[in-house]
Amino acid sequence: MKMVTDSKILCLKDTSLNADYRMDPILSKLHGHENLQRLTLSNCGIGDEYFTRVLDVLEKQKVMIVHLDVSQNELSMHSMVPLSNYLANYLCSKSLESIVLDKNDLHDDGIREVVDGMWERFSNIDKQSYPNALSFGKLSAKA
Tens digit of pLDDT for each residue in 79-90? Predict the structure, then answer.
């Protein structure tokens, strides 16, 4: 398993993770890594179910990543709904600046979900509670 990791970067590019025996240890490694800033799961075959589980772990563990790369996986519109919800929750996604989603099977509906989450994130930021919040233009998604 090709794995580049330090306290701020976890890169598993081109590593097959779609089986339970490989993905579950990765999910468990996310526990206690609040300092993680860059998560790369490019070309790992994680699919909708595991991507949703990754988002759940990031949210529950309050991991404030800056960059998320899930390009070239088997993601579809079905996992874009949980991503949209994650993006819309400013407390979870406040440090996120970039998402790489290219080479997935998202179609227009999937992209629309991502944009809706980004828009909701921007429109729900309470400027008084979060005076230094990122603007909508700061977060970008590549598809």
Answer: 999 999 999 998
Residue 5 and residue 40 in contact, taking contact as beta carbons nearer than 8 Å: no
**CB distance 101 to 71 below 8 Å:** yes
Residue 28 CA to residue 12 CA, distance in Å, equals 14
Residues 136, 143: Cα–Cα separation, whole Å: 17
> Hey, which residues does 67 pair with through a beta bridge?
38, 98
Burial class of residue 67 (count of CB atoms within 10 Å of its CB; 0-12, 13-18, 19+): middle
Does 13 fall in a domain?
yes
Instruction: Compute CA 36 distance to the chain's CA centroid, rounded to the nearest angstrom.
Output: 12
In a domain, 80, yes or no: yes
The one-letter amino acid code at 44 reads C
Quote the pTM value.
0.79
Residue 14 located in a structural domain: yes
Can you tell me the distance from the alpha carbon of 89 to that of 45, in angstroms, rounded to the nearest whole number?
A: 26
- Please, is 63 exposed, middle or buried when counting C-beta atoms within 10 Å of its C-beta (0-12, 13-18, 19+)? buried
The amino acid occupying position 60 is K
